[in-house]
Amino acid sequence: MQMRKPQFRGRAARTRLDMVSSVILFLLVSASSGRGQTVVLQTGMVSHLSLEQVVDKLIVKNAERAAALQRYQSRRFYRLEYTGFPASLKAEMVVDMVYEAPATKTFKIVSQSGPKWMIDRIFKGLLQAEQEGLKNRERVELNRNNYAFSGMEFKDGGDGCSYVLAVQPKISNKLLYRGRIWVNSKDFAVCRIEAEPAKNPSIWIKNTAIHHIYQKFGDFWFPSENQSTSTMRVGGRAVLSIKYQNYEILAARPLQETDSERSELRRSSISAPLSNRVE
Q1: If you count Cβ atoms within 10 Å of the first and of the last residue's Cβ in the chain, which end, N or C, has fewer?
Q2: pTM surpassing 0.85?
């Protein structure tokens, strides 16, 4: 009897973690679909735009950034903790990633610890699914085909992430989300996401909270930290955290400045000093 009890506990916890793995996946695919977010010249002036204008600029800039970024690499630190009935489990994995435009990611596992089934079924399963998700990026991109944008607020918090938009998925897709996004007022890049999955992947999951942060590295914005917390209806809590470090841009094309941007910069140069330096 003592030999069977650990097996039962392992199977029960395994079932619960399998339920949340699809929740975790959508965040990774969402992060990968954004790729790099480049920085434009800072004019020293911030104008309050309409919702439509912000969304237009966000979509255009995302497309330009996606075309500009050709190759980069980084290191990821995965950590998954499950606490609750019938057992508490933990696994960790360090992965090096190389991205090649237009839609290829190569992963190399540096280290791993924890139950083998968690690493194989959860972590490695997420890596494989993320690669496959790149091939269907148009279904998860942040644009008007996939999302409805509403309820914009302007909050000058000092970090430049001033536009706060509500997003609601238009199509039925477990890889989409609903919630709020923070958009940088100069770069028109998403710098923060607070959301939940558009579709609950299982009746056994009560809720899932997603926290996603971007930061600027060199001339680009990249994912910095993700956390997904899922609460089970019958008890138990799963927390996945991913930290991104050691970004290195290996190849990138120069961005093409549009006529409207050139005109805006010329007008700004007359009324305010330009700062071309990116810290």
Answers
A1: N
A2: no
